[in-house]
Specification:
The chain has 271 residues and is an alpha/beta fold. The chain has eight helices and seven strands; from the N terminus they run βαβαβαβαβαβαβαα. Helix 1 crosses helix 6, helix 3 packs parallel to helix 4 and helix 4 runs parallel beside helix 5.
Length: 271
């Protein structure tokens, strides 16, 4: 099991949404230190101030994870000021709710940079130290969209598919090397944090509420789960996609469960 107690935890996108909730949770679990990376200065300052009343060793850094130079500098500063990172939670992400042909090149580059590339660049800064210490845990927040395509989510889905493939690969590498670094990939259905405002879902596939979702993620970290998926129906996606003809799968997922219509009224966060 991965002990959160007495560990130093880094959470990207940790000043809002499930990132902030995970920060609060690891403090409750007795973490030794908490590091928050976020691109929003005001939210970061407010969160660090709030958490510092509960934990002495809280550090916040303004980082645009789409910028490799900022990642490198922030990683150096993090280790220098907060110490070695025991648990890295790659949580920062964005979504552009458009048909693919409506995207700009900037939309594509930024989505892939933040949702997929950044996770690799950040892990590259901390994983060697974890390997050397034979201890650590990398947690990658992907999405159920990384297993099933969806209209108005094409680039987002592509970025999350990349996260799943990369997570599995580094997990297998650590096992082959006989190293004790653990990897957990989280693939939730929509979580009602504001990021997916306007999304509509059917009764059969409920939208996740933030607090229960965070409890499942933290529990998955503690138990070294390879995958954390929610709700339970998400565990069946790969099985049914593998055994059913594509058109039958589309009929069930698109027409019966209405997944392919969930983004029709998407608005996203107002700010």
């Amino acid at each position: 099991m991965s002990e959160i107690k007495n560990s130093t935890v880094l959470i990207t996108g940790g000043a809002s949404g499930i990132g902030k909730l995970m920060g609060s949770s690891v403090i409750n679990k007795g973490c030794k230190g908490l590091v928050i990376w976020d691109v929003n200065p005001q939210a970061l300052n407010d969160t660090v101030k709030e958490f510092s009343s509960r934990l002495k060793n809280v550090h916040g850094y303004i980082v645009d994870v789409a910028n490799i130079d900022q990642i490198r500098l922030a990683a150096e500063q993090t280790v220098r000021e907060a110490g070695a990172i025991d648990i890295l939670i790659n949580n920062a992400g964005i979504v552009v709710g458009k048909y693919f042909h409506e995207h700009t090149h900037h939309d594509i580059d930024r989505t892939m940079s933040i949702n997929a590339d950044a996770l690799m660049h950040i892990a590259l800064e901390f994983l060697p130290g974890m390997i050397e210490r034979n201890h650590g845990h990398i947690v990658n927040i992907s999405s159920a969209a990384g297993m099933v395509g969806n209209p108005k989510m094409s680039v987002y889905a592509a970025s999350k598919w990349a996260v799943i493939g990369w997570s599995d690969s580094i997990r297998l590498e650590m096992e082959r090397l006989g190293n004790n670094v653990k990897v957990t990939c989280v693939t939730p259905y929509y979580i009602s944090t504001g990021m997916f405002d306007g999304v509509k879902s059917s009764f059969f596939v409920p939208i996740n509420k933030p607090e229960p979702a965070v409890r499942k993620i933290i529990n998955g970290i503690e138990k070294n789960k390879l995958h954390v998926r929610m709700p339970l129906i998400v565990y069946t996606l790969q099985l049914f996609k593998g055994i059913l003809p594509t058109r039958v799968f589309d009929l069930i997922v698109g027409n019966f469960l209405k997944i392919y219509k969930t983004m029709d009224e998407f608005t996203g966060r107002k700010n």
